[in-house]
């Protein structure tokens, strides 16, 4: 009977298996390190790219901030100019308003049939006094006044016959109360605070 010693074969096979496992382990570690280094390089490149974009965006934001400040300055200057323009327009209106006002009254007067003796205005309330050839002329004058842009209403307060013996002339003396566009409503009186005392 022939006997074969298999111990050396088994030991060699065992060593081969161990070497193979060690090789697979180191190969796996190498692949993992390679993958980690590749990922790290990609992430580093992406980070550098993002930092560059961030720097560019910050520069753009700085330029936009200058533009924003310039726009705000222009808006402020525009508002200032507009306020000055409004003041000038109000002053021009106040300056030219009375001139146009008197011009419209003068145009409304029937020529050679009515004469004004007094004109007074306070807080938009206009009072006209004068003489006319007759009552119809006074009515015509009132109609003309109501057609003007500056006067909103015309009321006849008094009218009476006036005689001028020197000229042998009878006229209708009148007083007109008019309201103008410049009329300002008076503020309502506020009730005084405090307890009211009852009379005993």
Automatic annotation (TrEMBL):
One Pfam family, please name it.
PilN
Keywords (A to Z) from UniProt: Coiled coil, Membrane, Transmembrane, Transmembrane helix
Listed under GO biological process in this entry are:
type IV pilus assembly; type IV pilus-dependent motility
Transmembrane residues, as ranges?
22-41
InterPro entries, per database record: Extracell_DNA_Util/SecSys_Comp, PilN
Q: Which residues form a coiled coil?
A: 40-84
Mind telling me what this protein is named? Answer: PilN domain-containing protein
User: Which species is this record about?
Assistant: Candidatus Desulfacyla euxinica
